[in-house]
Amino acid sequence: MSAPNLHGLNPPQRQAVLHTEGPLLVLAGAGSGKTRVIIEKVAHLIQSGRYPAKRIAAITFTNKSAREMRERVGKRIKGDAAQDLTVSTFHALGLKIVQIDHAKLGLRRGFSIFDADDSSAQLKDLLPPGSKPDVIDAAKHLISRAKNAGLSPAQAAEASRSTREREAAALYARYQQRLSAFNAVDFDDLIRLPVQLLETDDEVRMAWRERIGYLLVDECQDTNDAQYRLLKAIAGDAGQFTCVGDDDQSIYAWRGANPDNLLSLGTDYPALKIVKLEQNYRCSNRVLRAANALIANNPHEHPKTLWSDAADGERIRVWECRDAAHEADKVAAEIQFIAQKHTAPDAPPPWGEICILFRGNHQSRALEKALQLLRIPYHLSGGTAFLDRGEVKDALAWLRLLANPDDDAAFLRAVQSPNRGVGAGTLAKLGELAAHAHVPLARAAESITLAKQLPARAANALQGFASLLHGLRNDARTLPPTELVRKLNERSGLLAALQASCKDEAQFKLRRRNLDELADWFDGPKTSGPGELAAALALLSHADKGDVGNQVRLMSMHASKGLEFRFVFIVGVEDGNLPHEASLDEGRLDEERRLFYVGITRAKERLWLSHAKEAQRWGDKLRLQPSRFLDELPADELQRDGADPVADAAQKAERRSTSLANIRAMLAD
Fold first, then answer.
1. For residue range 224-243, what is the model confidence (pLDDT) as tens digits?
2. Predicted confidence (pLDDT) at residue 525 exceeds the cutoff of 60
3. Are 323 and 611 in contact (CB under 8 A)?
4. Cα distance between residue 330 and residue 309, in whole Å
5. Which of 339, 345, 382, 426 is 20 to 30 A from 181 (CA-CA)?
6. Coil, strand or helix: which one is 242?
7. In which band, very low, low, confident or very high, does the pLDDT at 664 lie, cut at 50, 70 and 90?
8. Which CATH class is domain 11-98+200-279?
9. Lowest mean per-residue pLDDT among 42-51, 147-156, 301-310, 650-659
């Protein structure tokens, strides 16, 4: 076997790669090369003969990260080994466990995975009539929080401390009964159910420990309680794992992440070895010194200090602006100057190397307007995700129903997509008949006996729908997945309805492209029918985006984690915004500081921080205060407006010179 490729790794990175006996925690600071460490460690585990690839699992948090890691492992490890390796998200691993051991969980083969809309629809039906969307969302949040803590309905009821929590636990129980009736699980169940099974069934637990001999977990600080318990159940007492994380970048407590899991590793595994990666390969030293000073104000069990061989770089600019509009204008003008200064001859401007970060998505409006006025191309993260597009969700409902005739949520969407004369009244009556006969809606629609109890027109429409499903289900046994999806789009009437709903041919072509892309997604993966295809799709993260091209990026600081840009602007650095008002009220200042730390460490070369003096709220002018975090940054690393007249004058002169040079170049052309 060949030796690990340690060339170019620093001493702590090499130490992390070579440690293969017993539990290991790698505390990896921002930009410290943690992904390379994981790749090299996987290669070392395989090439040393310590573990075959099929017994190694590398777990991360997004499908995008998993794809990138899989590609890098494939380049590093030649041959079939890379194909045998498990590289996935926690939820994909959980799905694999549920698929293999579904019978132990009381599920039948081909179970459905409810998405957020499906769950909301079921909760709306279970709550009192007329419940408002915010009530439904609140109930869904409480149930999700219980599942992320690994609690069953009975355990949630036992842990309830208030009337609201007891009501939510009772709703959770009814909701789970409904899922069971539909032979379905929701997204949170993909972690909760495997934890429940592995913690209570010795035979299953030992089988999975045999399947997965070594576990690598990236972004361990983002694990919730259920995910941490899944890690422990698989790793066992021996703790053959490497967890990679950074407590300074834990910014997802609002969705259940528990950074204390990093501390729990030391308690649960006394033999835990800790390696710190502190050398940063991304940022200038000024940015690092500012980030270190900021985060030092948070408590640390394992403090670390990032350092770099890079140059100091320019000081961090701090702008005080009149309001959000003035702030946006300054940012847009500076971006235009950056593009002029750094555009190479015969090359496009480096728009893609520039990013604007903000605390909340509402802050993008003024920025978009300012960028549009200067004709600066930009991409706003957080637009309508591909899987959220109506035509795509319609096709997926059909696909899910082909895979699982018991999926009532999919039936309700598919039977009305496109409209075939089956209205709400008919569906309500069908639901009553189905409940009385103890069959799912799709089976009820096929029943001639039940159909006789419906109006003739509606009964005929349902019979036609059932016949169409039957034919497509037969096709699913023989057609390649991509061809099946294309045939479904045609025969279901989805394409015809889509064309009828579009105002012109151009719009139809644009939206049809979404259905064609959906079909293309099924080209290549090894699957055995629409059931596995639908399950795979249910795991796709709506946040995963492809390459957005050479455009300025606008995004929230939460969305920026894991990314890096040459030039970074952070706007709205005011108390009440960063740190957020709610965090101040709830005593969550540490997480807001970590969020600011994440934003700062996205900058490779230059960083701008801006704040406004006033804002318009409900028609009144509100006086704003600069963020308290600005006072935690080292004054020597900052250049505030007006504080250094010599530097300000030099920068103004540079802008005039660059503008004149561009004018001369245009005249010369």
1. 899 999 999 999 988 999 99
2. no
3. no
4. 32
5. 426
6. strand
7. very low
8. alpha beta
9. 650-659
Radius of gyration of the chain (CA): 28
Q: Percentage of residues in the chain with pLDDT exceeding 70?
A: 90
Beta-sheet strands, E only, within 187-272 = 214-217, 241-245
Q: Which residues contact 336 (CB under 8 A, 6 or more apart)?
A: 374, 376
pLDDT, tens digit, 9 for 90 and up, residues 379-416: 988 655 566 778 888 888 898 888 888 888 888 889 88
CA atoms within 13 A on the CB side of 568: 28
Q: Is the dihedral of CA 501, 507, 511, 517 positive or negative?
A: positive
Task: Kindly give the pairing relationship between strand 620-623 and strand 614-617.
Answer: antiparallel
**pLDDT, tens digit (0-9, with 9 covering 90-100), for 490-507:** 999 999 998 888 888 888
- Beta strands 273-277 and 565-570 are unpaired
Average confidence score pLDDT of the chain:
86
The confidence score (pLDDT) of residue 429 equals 79
Cβ-defined contacts of 121-130 (< 8 Å, 24+):
121/409, 121/412, 122/175, 122/178, 122/179, 122/409, 123/171, 123/175, 126/171, 126/174, 126/175, 126/178, 127/171
User: Would you report the helix, strand and coil content of the chain in percent, each value rounded to 5?
Assistant: 55, 15, 30
**Domain spanning 295-382+546-668: which superfamily?**
P-loop containing nucleotide triphosphate hydrolases (3.40.50.300)
Beta bridge partners of 27: 245, 276
Q: Which of 117-126, 350-359, 492-501 has the highest mean pLDDT?
A: 350-359
Range in 240-244, 352-356, 514-518, 543-547 with the lowest mean pLDDT: 543-547
Q: Is it true that 11-98+200-279 and 295-382+546-668 share their CATH fold? A: yes
* 635 CB neighbour count, 10 Å cutoff: 10
H helix and E strand count, the chain: 29, 17
Measured CA to CA, the distance from residue 641 to residue 192 in angstroms comes to 52
Using DSSP's 3-state secondary structure scheme, residue 245 falls into strand
- List, by residue number, the catalytic residues: 34-35, 218-219, 249, 602
CATH architecture assigned to 386-538: Orthogonal Bundle (1.10)
Render 103-156 in DSSP notation, one character per residue. Answer: GGGT--TT-EEE-HHHHHHHHHHHSPTT--HHHHHHHHHHHHHHHHTT--HHHH
In one-letter notation, the amino acid at residue 596 is F
* Domain-wise residue ranges, the chain: 11-98+200-279, 112-182, 295-382+546-668, 386-538
Nearest CA to 521 out of 63, 33, 25 is that of: 63
Instruction: Kindly report the pTM of this predicted structure.
Output: 0.79
1: number of Cβ within 10 Å:
9
Residues contacting residue 177 through CB under 8 Å, at least 6 positions apart: none
Cα gap 90→192, rounded to integer Å = 11
- The rounded distance, in Å, linking the Cα atoms of 36 and 40 is 6
Tokens of 18: 């070579």
Nearest-angstrom CA–CA distance, 555 and 82: 34
Contacts of 79 (CB under 8 A, 6+ apart): none
Q: Is the pLDDT reported for residue 667 higher than 50? A: no
CATH topology of domain 112-182: Arc Repressor Mutant, subunit A (1.10.10)
Cα separation of 510 and 508, whole Å?
5
Residue 576: is it exposed, middle or buried by C-beta count within 10 angstroms (0-12/13-18/19+)?
Answer: middle
